[in-house]
Amino acid sequence: MAVGGLVALVAPHVASAQTEPPADDDLLALHEAIVKWQDVWGRDLSYDAALLDGRWTRWVGPERNSPEADLRALLQGTGLSLHRLSSGTLSLKRNAAPVRPGSLSGYILDQAQGNPLARAHIRIRDGFRGAATNTSGLFTLDALPPGHYDLLVSHVGYASKAVQVDIEPGKHSDILVELRIEPHMYEPVIVDSNHEFDAPLPLNMLSEDAVSKVSGMGVADLIHNMNVLPGVRVGDAMSEVHIQGGDRGEHQFLLDGGLIFEPVHLFGLVGAFNPFAISRITVDKAGFSASKGSYLAGVIHAEHAVTDTDNHPLDVQLDPLSLNMRLNLSVGQPEETHGEFMAAYRTSVWDGPLSFLRSSEIDDLMLHWNEPDPFLLRASLFPLKAFNRLAYDRYTGQLQELPKPGIPDMSFQDVHLAGRLRFRNTHMFHGSYYRGGNQLNARRLVTSLDDTTDDNGNPNLDQYDWINENAQVRWTALPTANLFVAARLRSSLYRLNHEYSALDRKNVRTVFSGARQVFDLIETEDANRIRESALESTLDYSHSGGILHTGFELINSRHRFTITDVFSRSIFHQESAWRMIFFAEEKLTAIPRLTVTGGGRVTYLDSRATFYAEPRLDLRYTAPLGPSAKISVRGAGGIYYQFLNQFEISTISPTTFFPSTRFWMPVDETLPPPKAYHLAGDVGLQFAERWMFRTEGYYKIQPRLYRIDYPALWIKPESEDIEDIPITTQNDFIEEAEGYAYGSAFILEHNGRTLRTQARYEYNIAKRDYAYRDSVRMEPVPWSEPHRLEFAVDWTPHPNFIASARWRGGWGRIWGFRQAYYDFLATDVSQGLSFDGYDFLDPTAEDHRLPSFQQLDLGVAYTQPIGPAAFQLRVDVLNVTNRDNVADMSLLELPESDDLARQQRYLLPRTLSVSARLKW
């Protein structure tokens, strides 16, 4: 953020007083010039009239774009100079020995969390100078005349704070200011000559309260709660995150600046984070700046809750699925060396002694979702049914009855450690560590004819095991009044293992020649391991017209994955890839109320020995519209690459919870990185004291995307010897595609002292290329939900009581069948073109459309203080109307019939959730 305010007082030019009028006709008596200046600019000036006697100037009229600059030009050569008092008043004085000005810098922090506050405003009371903090919470005011200053520090959503500071000649002072959150106050904030009014509260951020709200399966679900942000869609079943039409994996999740690879988040039952360990989530969408990174869709930033929010260092909650704990510790004095630390732990109670807390609705849902898909498992044989029903019945009759599914064994644990150590106000160390583990062991679902157990006599299982790890340490310093430096060392690990017994469809397809007459299962394993390590450094240099932000990153990604599925060949890939990044961006605020942020990134990709440039530009204009109204207008755009990508391959797995395997890998020498062009804009309007309206829109051109090349994977090698050799290069199983996306959102919000309401409508369209057996067509994306409507109400009649209601609806969903139907049945040339009239070559057909999604959730929470502690009891009812919201469809063979019928799989029914939380 550029540091606003006026430049330092220029050193006056000393001149002798003239007692006689000069012969030069261009000169004007200084007294007349001052009167003329006051008439032009309408400004008052403090001076002794005797100072003007016998003095002359060449100034004949307005020459500059500000009254002070014009006055300085008027005084040139007069022996007088302009001075600003600490009150902001302008005065004239005789030139004297120059006094060395001082300077001031400092950090503005969130009092509850201790996190830096970007775009906080610092204003000198009764004056016209001010500043705004950058992304690190840093501000600088230089060239300050010595004296006492009264400062007003403010930020939208926080209570303003008055600060006093004394500036000594030629010396630098620094301060630390902590602001207390006031989430329902939206008063106009006067700042400085460059940014006179702050923009309305941004709608891309979740505070700690919003992060820990109940959703999903009736528990605090950090990922699922991002659904309330415009432009962000979180799937209701697998909780896949899509940002403004982008696919999962086209954005990146960062925790304290380190990467988190989140593969699945099933209903909120399994997932990455303890919500009580996170203080804030910010989502950067289309048009994000050069310093944010290289991703096609956006960046999700999560920050650890290092400081306890309400002087309760111990926080414990028990809900139907998990036990959550957080402990905070503070040491030292804020004015001196000061340390803050946090430890959090979460574990599932799904199968433990507390499993009785789990509702019967959740059990029923898990049983239903764990049912296998018999049609998909034997779809290779279905074409035989059309012309030889007897043979089809004989072959399928040899399959033993599918056993009744059971509730899978699920468990998850995660630990968060974070802390920071601040040495006075100039140096700070930050550090954090996170490890999250998830396991799912499904009961035996599918067996071969002859074997129901493995070599050890145990039932065949479908087992998932994945972990995420992230560690980072960061050092920040303020070596001079206008220089801020930081360095970070980080490392992230993601590991997935999926062991299961899959149907050997390679052999099934030879059934027509009589070579094999039974189904077999093959032991297989899908795995992915990736570690990314990075060294990063940034430098912020503040000057009178703005701030220059630069950075350098050196990143190494080492990955390995293997996919063994129903294709002719398995897939194996491993690589160690390096990339170097340099970025620079300048935020200019010289024009009143206008901020211009321009910059770019340059990435050197070692695997391709190529540089990739990403220029970006952001323009923002803010202005007052009245005593309680203001407007903010923004436009942004640029070029965006992505160098670390996620892919997904459907599987015919016994368990239907996870119908695909997702894996991460950097691009190799065979493929250039994906590329997109962003154009985005938004308008924010606060038109009354507590009413806000905002609209945002985006358009993305995606000239280079990637998808799994299923048609190529089905092709059987001409030589049988090649079948045992895995595919090892990316362009052998990944195909290039094109796409585009556009959309808009409209939000109306009222923030009262006891009642807060919001209405939001979104329209989003995204299309890209998809491959079928013999063609490639541009289709709407499977995750598309063109129309979304939401109403939310929070009522707080008493500080200890809150009631909430949320209704949301979605219309226009297509690709109604499970994704494997399209990935397998529409791409394998050995399959039939149609299955009893169902054709998977057109996912937009009427019989592939899903009905609208609608859900109403209600909740109440009461907090009872108990001495130094506080106990909260919360009751939520999800899907109050018990609406049957369809998640997807599959096909079912009707008994004793040649017909197929559609069967639907539903999302969460009406569910009661009760949780208890204790803060001490």
Describe this structure in words.
With 920 residues, the chain is mostly beta strands. It is 8% helix and 49% strand. It is built from 10 helices and 47 strands. It has a 22-stranded antiparallel barrel. Strands 12-19-20-17-18 form a 5-stranded mixed sheet. Helix 1 packs antiparallel against helix 2 (67-75). The longest helix has 12 residues, at 30-41. 42% of the residues are buried.
SSE topology sketch:
Elements: E1 28-29, H1 30-41, E2 56-57, H2 67-75, E3 80-84, E4 90-94, E5 102-110, E6 121-124, E7 130-132, E8 138-144, E9 147-154, E10 161-167, E11 172-179, E12 205-206, H3 208-211, E13 214-215, E14 219-220, E15 232-234, E16 241-243, E17 251-255, E18 258-260, E19 278-284, E20 298-304, E21 314-318, E22 322-332, E23 338-348, H4 360-369, H5 374-377, H6 382-387, H7 389-397, E24 409-423, E25 427-442, E26 462-480, E27 483-503, H8 505-508, E28 521-543, E29 546-563, E30 571-588, E31 594-605, E32 610-626, E33 629-641, E34 644-650, E35 660-666, E36 675-688, E37 691-708, H9 710-714, E38 734-751, E39 755-771, E40 776-780, E41 787-798, E42 801-811, H10 819-825, E43 853-866, E44 869-878, E45 886-893, E46 900-906, E47 911-919
Parallel strand pairs: 5-11, 17-20
Antiparallel strand pairs: 1-2, 3-4, 5-8, 6-7, 6-9, 9-10, 12-19, 13-14, 15-16, 17-18, 19-20, 21-22, 21-47, 22-23, 23-24, 24-25, 25-26, 26-27, 27-28, 28-29, 29-30, 30-31, 31-32, 32-33, 33-36, 34-35, 36-37, 37-38, 38-39, 39-40, 39-41, 41-42, 42-43, 43-44, 44-47, 45-46
Helix pairs in contact: 1-2
